[in-house]
Amino acid sequence: MKGDATDPKALIREAYRIDGITPEQCRSIFLDWALSYEGETGPAIRILLEQYGAAADHPMTQTLKEGLGTAQAPRRRGGRAGRGQAM
To answer: Comparing C-alpha atoms, which of 29, 12, 6, 21 is closest to residue 59?
Structure first.
């Protein structure tokens, strides 16, 4: 089964079709989607929420919202700057 540009493997779509899916299973599916998605995840997550967000009580909706929050988080700087040490 083929998806679309935002969900190429149709992982998110299928998650919404699984009766009784747990939040843990949704996070696992989301991780698989995020690791295989080529491009910026933030805009893609917004599109997915527009497509499926009407199911507000579905655990995948909550997972996508959480993923959107982490997609915007700044990355940790490495080396001396990341440890806060001055020269």
So the answer is: 21
Q: What is the pTM of this model?
A: 0.76
- Sketch the domain layout of the chain as residue ranges: 11-74
Residue-wise pLDDT for 16-25, tens only, equals 999 999 999 9
Structure tokens that stand for 87 in this block: 């020269």
- Measured at the CA of 66, the angle between CA 65 and CA 69, to 5 degrees, comes to 90
Between the alpha carbon of residue 82 and those of residues 2, 4, 76, 85, the distances in Å are 41, 38, 6, 8
Q: What is the DSSP string of 14-61?
A: HHHHSTT--HHHHHHHHHHHHHH--S-HHHHHHHHHHHHTT-TTSHHH
